[in-house]
Amino acid sequence: MSVSPWVWALTLAGILAVIAADLFLIHRNDTREFTTRRAAFWSVIYIGLAVAFGAGVWVFSGGEYAAQYFGGFVTEKSLSVDNLFVFMVILTRFAVPKHAQHTVLMAGIVIALVLRGLFIAVGAAAIATFTWVFFIFGAFLIWTAYGLVRGGGEDEFKENGLLRWAKRVIPTSEEYDGTRFLVRRDGRRMVTPLLIVMIAIGSTDVLFALDSIPAIFGLTTEPYLVFTANAFALMGLVQLYFLLGGLTDRLVYLGHGLAFILGFIGVKLILHALHEYGVAWAPDVPIWLSLAVIAGTLVATTVASLAAGRRALDQGGQTSPADRPGDAEAEPAAEGPPVP
């Protein structure tokens, strides 16, 4: 797939325009809570943009590359759903006011998009030069899948080094001031806790990229498709956060489904590397099979989760947020994310 510099430039300009519209037009001077209805509306808009872009790839580059893009987008989107649990914990732990949650999530995701772009550039260069990198990516995804099955606390939030450094070094006020990041207190310029939360969201999402970027490289090695699939998945993540809200507690089998997807892509990467090295028995898994496995797994996981929740209600029980690591901290309704 040959992508000229001007196509890259137009794509980046379009992504920046969408982000700017979200930050400065949709949410500008809007102190209302981001309700489920608004989240649903804008989620449809973002998904529509992602689908339209994929249709454009189909028209200009063919069905094979379009399938790779859609496979990468669906994978990134499904992985991002599990990440929302951690975002809920972060916003609750820092007691972010509801009307400011959209702003801080969007700003954190902009940081994550920039850093993911750097990761993608490095990964693409490594794959183009060294075929054995596929073995490393594949083994890492299989190990990650094993950790998800074991329930290794992937939904817990732990402060990383960057966040601890920021809290220690940057002068921070004690209270929030609307959606402002900078304030002046006693003649001294300080940042509000909103900036610290933004750093927490952005840096945590970069850690999630250690799973998702190798996974999408298992579906396509085209840097343009890897980046755009990540961009569209991230840009709609804020709306998905407010849309799903309490529904995420019901997806009890999501971790197992994601583990299967990551394990499948990990095996696919290893088989691809063996195929490239001329191993006769190693097949190169076609993209249509990858799409079928990913879509089928997500559908089965969702149906099984909702069925399990319905059985629990029929038996007089209920799904508790405390059943998932870290969600017990998201219990207070006063400062947590809105629940549909």
Keywords:
340 residues; mainly alpha; two-stranded antiparallel ribbon; 11 helices; globular; disordered C terminus
Report mean pLDDT, rounded to a whole number: 76
H-E order: HHHHHHEEHHHHH
Radius of gyration: 21 Å
Percent helix? 55-70%
Would you give an account of this structure?
The chain has 340 residues and is mainly alpha-helical. It has one domain. The protein is built from eleven helices and two strands, in the order H-H-H-H-H-H-E-E-H-H-H-H-H. The protein has a two-stranded antiparallel ribbon. Strand 1 and strand 2 form a beta hairpin. Helix 2 runs antiparallel to helix 8 and helix 6 runs antiparallel to helix 7. The longest helix has 32 residues. It is globular. The C terminus is likely disordered.
Brief summary:
This protein has helices at about 5-25, 35-60, 65-95, 100-130, 135-150, 160-170, 195-215, 225-235, 235-245, 255-275, 285-315, and strands at about 180-185, 190. The protein has about 350 residues and is mostly helical.
Summarize the helices and strands and which ones pair or pack.
Blueprint (H helix, E strand, L loop, with lengths): L4 H22 L9 H26 L1 H31 L4 H32 L3 H18 L10 H9 L12 E4 L2 E4 L1 H25 L5 H13 L1 H8 L9 H23 L10 H28 L26
Antiparallel strand pairs: 1-2
Helix pairs in contact: 1-8, 2-3, 2-8, 2-9, 3-7, 3-8, 3-10, 3-11, 4-7, 4-8, 5-10, 6-7, 7-10, 10-11
